[in-house]
Amino acid sequence: MRCCSSNKPLELTYAAMFKACALLYSLEEGRQVHVDCLKRGLDSDVYVCNTMIHFYGSCKKIINARKVFDEMTHTSVVSWNTIISAFLKVSWFYESLEYYMRMRVNGIEPNETTKVVVLSVCAELGNLTIGKCVHTRIIVNGLKLTCQLGTALVNMYAKCGDLSRASLVFETMRVRNVWTWSAMIHGLAQHGLARRALLLFKKMKDDLVEPNDVTFIGVLFACSHAGLVEDGCRFFDEMKHVYGIKPRLTHYGAMVDVLGRSGRLNEAYNFIMNMEIKPDPTVWRTLLSACSVHNDIDFDGVGEKVQKRLLDLEPRWSGNLVIIANKYADVCKWNDAAQLRKMMKVTGLKKMAAESCIEVKGSNFRFLSGYDSQASSVNIYLLIDGLSLNMKSSNICYI
Fold this sequence. Notes:
mainly alpha; two-stranded antiparallel sheet; 2 strands
């Protein structure tokens, strides 16, 4: 980019250019603007730096965004919100929380935008403790429960499994939009309360709130968990023909799950084959899981067809091979299972370690199968052994 020397761009001009580059994901052009800022000594301007961080965050160049932020001599609440949001966009959730804590330590008072972003991070991590702390700060600071803030709270509590608090916030909100309703419907559906989710969906339409594509994902999940195949098909058609919403892969995957869970494997297979967009591996894996549940891996059966499709799409993804090998083993097809595992060994493919995590007092602890990542793992195993002995001595049957 070349600028006339007699017409020096102002800070607002550079900020506007960074915003335009962020909107268009124009990485190279944005970098040229960055270089020009450095030449003109505008890299110390807070407003310019904020838009620069936003630009790099939008282009998912998070290292560059963090470097710009860390080199700022003066920051504002907008600066902190921008970098925390940038981390959230690329799923760097722990970094988002780290910078939120640093923000508090530096004496910057979080505003509504900060709290909305941090609540979204807590929802993704399932960190209920920090989410509750943010909610407490909202109450203590006397912040008005706006639609955006209330929706973030509903989403956080719902995803963390505290449906009673999610419902309480939802009911106390004076103004609710489609995202608020969708968050509550999703929460109920994901935690097995499918009937309540569908009743809430009906109430949403009765209140003349038009559902969007996200709403229907929650509705289809609810139908899947409740085994409501006919309702799922009806809602899928309603989404397309009544509300004019074009289905995405997530909707198709949810419909495959609706049919597959109910054992309608051939219908699910034909549904995938007639999709308006090309199915991705996730859609095929959804059907493969259903085939496994219903023990359909016979030659020329749906399971066999799905396996071939999946292996054609992802021939070197170990997860697919492990699923198929386990399915063969479940029905005593030991030779087929052994051949797949031998192929994995020869080609150097390794099974991904199983992972679980738990949140305790605001800290998330991550555990990998076969790997003791915690320094105190010895004490943990000693505690488990002690509990096992106590259970045996009490004649308690456990698994």
